[in-house]
């Protein structure tokens, strides 16, 4: 009888040890997964070299923080007769669009207020329901910053839109990234509001 009890207790102890080993292995796997995710995220962020780039249009110049060098502009004419310099930099994590509007065939640019009204209408057509508009003081200029979310092709995007006028040029600067992309969110956090309007040179 005592032998049976001893054998039973040893069996239970073996089961408990096996359970502990399995739990320890599972915890180890979870820790390794967490470390690998953190390392891959850090390594991706480590490849980003933040800097500043001067962009000129007409008599206006801005110095803007960017996660990579943005190429030269494409120049087009809008339906309303304005000349528009466009800079586009789409990547896996973030899309940056910069537009510099200048008078062309149409000598009168829209005001910032009219521009913001048109942008609001465009965002609403794209399904933005949480649009927030703020007056933000950049270095060298007052600007309107618009932010919100929208869905496109099954993904939800976060965006930040800046609109301001400087020396006869209307600037529209847009950052957007998928809401579940932590790297894109970190990039925007680093460059958000880092736009300097360079004063017009005398003479």
Please name the defining characteristics of this protein:
three-stranded antiparallel beta sheet, 10 strands, about 35% helix, about 200 residues, alpha+beta, about 40% strand, single chain, seven-stranded antiparallel beta sheet, globular
Description:
A seven-stranded antiparallel sheet has the order 3-4-5-9-8-7-6, with helices on both faces. A three-stranded antiparallel sheet has the order 1-2-10, with no helix packed on it. It is globular. Strand 4 (83-90) and strand 5 form a beta hairpin. Helix content is 34%, strand content 39%. It has helices at 2-46, 112-125, 182-191; strands spanning 51-57, 60-66, 74-77, 83-90, 95-102, 132-138, 141-152, 155-166, 169-178, 195-198. With 203 residues, the protein is an alpha+beta fold. It contains three helices and ten strands, in the order αβββββαββββαβ.
Question: Structural class, from helix and strand content?
Answer: alpha+beta
Q: Helicity, in percent?
A: 25-40%
Q: With helices defined by DSSP (H or I, 4 residues minimum), what is the helix count? A: 3
Please state the CA-atom Rg, rounded to the nearest Å.
27 Å
Largest sheet: number of strands, sense, barrel closure: 7 strands, antiparallel
Approximate shape: globular
> What percent strand?
35-45%
Q: Can you count the beta strands? A: 10
Distance from first to last alpha carbon: 108 Å
Mean pLDDT: 82
Order of helices and strands: HEEEEEHEEEEHE
Strand adjacency order, main sheet:
3-4-5-9-8-7-6
